[in-house]
Amino acid sequence: MTSLPGTEAAHQLVVCVRNKCTPEEALNVLRELPNPLREGEQPAAAQAAPYNPLKIDVFVQTLLNLGSKSISHSFAAISKFHYVFKILAESEEAQICILRNVWELWQRHPQMVCVLVDKMLKTQIVECNAVATWLFSKEMAPFFTHGYLWEVLHLTIDKMNKHVSKLSGELQEAREALARADSSSSDSEDENSSKKKKDQDKPTEEAVERMEERLEAAHMDQKRLFLIVFQRFIMILSEHLVRCDTDARDPDTHWYRSTVGRLRQVFLIHHEQVQKYSSTLETLLFTQDLDPHILDVFHQFIALTA
């Protein structure tokens, strides 16, 4: 009987991790695994593969299985092999593959899924946009009536919002410090030492410009995250309505009511941030040709925030 691809590597990895191997040694075990995305292609093409799902499957399943005794065991495993995660999670598709493996292993213990995704966001193994794309993938749609899925979505949006807020606060402080330093330098200086101290504390204009660029990039990421979330809501609800119309079935199912309720919840919980992008959402997503049932949710939000 032939074993599944990666079985031998998984056994080697178990031995390796139990023998307290280094991240580099763990990577060595995975090195020779073939890439199923590049089967039948030339070796040169295999080198250019965006990511290797087999490597991710073997590594994530093995490591999280070994660390499954408790949350602290899982966190310790993620921390120790963070370098390997970062190497494997080089693209959004690779990050989604990691999340699928977390789900596959822990879907019967949803709280563990929430905790692990949160940890992977905090340690920058996965990005917010990858989490949102994974949550709205077709295989997750049947679980939309489960609250923990939306808990993951909200913690992901919160993570992005806090990041933007932190950068915004830091920039504001730097601008104020620069303004204070400039105004005090024009006053008569009593002591040279106090002037030197102020010059040391004063951020450079270049540093402030870099902070502005980082904040602008963060705003772009935040906007993209909301566009992904609302676009996926629209797609998944529209597909349901079209399918019901084709099959002459009543679309007003428990799943549909639950999903529309979750869409409303995203608008209400994150209204401050969503409001900033409402004109973009109206132009790109919530257009007049959209099904009125879905469009009404957006119009209700606009009416509430007007």
Automatic annotation (TrEMBL):
<dbReference type="GO" id="GO:0005634">
    <property type="term" value="C:nucleus"/>
</dbReference>
<dbReference type="GO" id="GO:0006406">
    <property type="term" value="P:mRNA export from nucleus"/>
</dbReference>
<dbReference type="GO" id="GO:0000184">
    <property type="term" value="P:nuclear-transcribed mRNA catabolic process, nonsense-mediated decay"/>
</dbReference>
<dbReference type="Pfam" id="PF09090">
    <property type="entry name" value="MIF4G_like_2"/>
</dbReference>
<dbReference type="InterPro" id="IPR015174">
    <property type="entry name" value="MIF4G-like_typ-2"/>
</dbReference>
<dbReference type="InterPro" id="IPR027159">
    <property type="entry name" value="CBP80"/>
</dbReference>
<feature type="domain" description="MIF4G-like type 2">
    <location>
        <begin position="3"/>
        <end position="276"/>
    </location>
</feature>
<dbReference type="GO" id="GO:0000339">
    <property type="term" value="F:RNA cap binding"/>
</dbReference>
<dbReference type="InterPro" id="IPR016024">
    <property type="entry name" value="ARM-type_fold"/>
</dbReference>
<dbReference type="GO" id="GO:0005846">
    <property type="term" value="C:nuclear cap binding complex"/>
</dbReference>
<dbReference type="GO" id="GO:0003729">
    <property type="term" value="F:mRNA binding"/>
</dbReference>
<protein>
    <recommendedName>
        <fullName>MIF4G-like type 2 domain-containing protein</fullName>
    </recommendedName>
</protein>
<feature type="region of interest" description="Disordered">
    <location>
        <begin position="178"/>
        <end position="210"/>
    </location>
</feature>
<feature type="compositionally biased region" description="Basic and acidic residues">
    <location>
        <begin position="192"/>
        <end position="210"/>
    </location>
</feature>
